[in-house]
């Protein structure tokens, strides 16, 4: 007998958050990615997320550096690994 395994048709790259994607943070906060890249305050790739319901820490700027624009206390920055994509901006996922 032989065993076959199935592979998901969703590629890893489709789960990596990009600007415009909808994401879930820590399972209970949701929002839209407005920035992806390097920031001046930490190393690594970070996401700037505009939260749906506020409760954030900023308006898209940190210490005078503007990364994106949103309402006050609707912005938050998270390491890219902390966001789970719930809907891609340019697909039917």
What can you see in these coordinates?
Helix content is 0%, strand content 35%. The protein contains no helices and 7 strands. The chain is globular, with a radius of gyration of 16 Å. It starts with 21 loop residues before the first strand and ends in a 6-residue tail after the last strand.
Notable characteristics:
93 residues, mainly beta, five-stranded antiparallel sheet, two-stranded antiparallel ribbon, 7 strands, globular
SS class: mainly beta
User: Which bin fits the share of residues in helices?
Assistant: under 10%
Amount of beta strand = 35-45%
Order of helices and strands: EEEEEEE
What is the element layout, followed by pairings?
Elements (H helix, E strand, L loop, with lengths): L21 E4 L3 E9 L8 E6 L9 E2 L2 E2 L8 E5 L3 E5 L6
Antiparallel strand pairs: 1-2, 1-7, 2-3, 3-6, 4-5
In a nutshell, what does this entry contain?
The chain is mainly β and 93 residues long. 0% of the residues lie in helices and 35% in strands.
């Amino acid at each position: 007998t032989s065993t076959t395994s199935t592979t998901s048709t969703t590629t890893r790259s489709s789960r990596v958050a990009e600007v415009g994607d909808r994401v879930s943070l820590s399972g209970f906060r949701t929002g839209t990615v407005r920035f992806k890249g390097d920031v001046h305050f930490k190393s690594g790739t970070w996401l700037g997320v505009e939260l749906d319901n506020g409760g954030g820490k900023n308006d898209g700027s940190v210490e005078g550096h503007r990364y994106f624009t949103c309402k006050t206390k609707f912005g938050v920055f998270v390491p890219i690994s902390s966001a789970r994509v719930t809907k891609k901006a340019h697909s039917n996922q």
